[in-house]
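Lab notebook page, bench 4
Experiment: in silico fold of construct C2
Operator: M.H.
Input chain length: 182 residues
Purpose: comparison with the prior construct
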Amino acid sequence: MKQLLLALLAAVSLTLMGQAQAQTTPPEKLAAYAFMSGAWLATTEAVDPATGEWTAQMPSYVTVDTDLGGAVYAMRGPLPYRGRYIAAISYFTYDSFNDVYRVALMGHRFGLLDVFEGQFAEGVLTASNAATGSASPDGAGGVYISRLRLEPTADGFQLLAELSHDDGASWSPIFRTRYTHD
């Protein structure tokens, strides 16, 4: 009986391993990010919390290309933040197990790793960190969640970041970056 149980467990394990290895990112899903590929001039504007006005930040240059054998798109380059640059890398991928697009933003300042999940609709990715466990503390015992909107434009693409202090009932813009060819 014990040998039969072990044989059954081995067969189930091999079947599951085979399914996991056969499961790959569908190229048509990852192709939703293809418009980002290339070298870009990134022009960022941030909302001044005191005035609510958009203020220009320092420009930067970024590259976007595929990584990990074509399983993700990777954006590399500095991000402007309050008068200085933050070393950053962002990964854009599709999780075929959970049928969700993900964006992972990593920066050296604050040890940031922020993960967003969402879907493309009419060529625009809308993703938030509400369900990923990476929402940021608000300093008053709660959290604020962030949302990204990534969309192609006539001359490149744009990333808009927004914050919500009320679990997504309302959103306020914090920055937008336009990516254009130099």
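Observations: The mean pLDDT is 85. Helices lie at 2-22, 27-30.
Next step: discuss at group meeting.
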